[in-house]
């Protein structure tokens, strides 16, 4: 058995397990959060509902294509420029939307449990809908550079970033927007709650 074979099998079986568990869990979240009447009017559950919807989109677009690519050697990003750019856009945008919704749910819990009446007013479904629309618009705008700078390399035939300046930004994106800022927000507002 070669290391490549073991890697492919691990990708297939672990990836399929993640897809199954992720789809099942997020589908159950959507079912519960959208059908229970008391949850439909709560802003915190609205954030989790939106997060679950975008998690499913992330799983379908990014995780399944990664399993097919690494596990079976079928990689449409090597042949289709449109899919290369779309996948990069979704990779950046969908993950940021779900993380931001989790942060907003934590902040909303702080608002809901505050002793200050003015702060408690921020915890309502009307504000939650506005915040989600703003978040989606901001992260879709943030996802424009991956569309512009992603391309299929003529030498490696791999989809990736072709702009040096944008390549310098990506580590800051990963460390800041995906890791550090959400952790700080959740820990801070979780502690304040």
Automatic annotation (TrEMBL):
Keywords: Membrane, Transmembrane, Transmembrane helix. Residues 25-193 form the G-protein coupled receptors family 1 profile domain. Its main location: membrane. It comes from the Eukaryota. InterPro entries: GPCR_Rhodpsn_7TM. SUPFAM superfamilies: Family A G protein-coupled receptor-like. The chain crosses the membrane at residues 12-34, 46-68, 89-107, 127-149, 170-192. It is found in: Membrane. GO terms for cellular component: membrane. This is G-protein coupled receptors family 1 profile domain-containing protein.
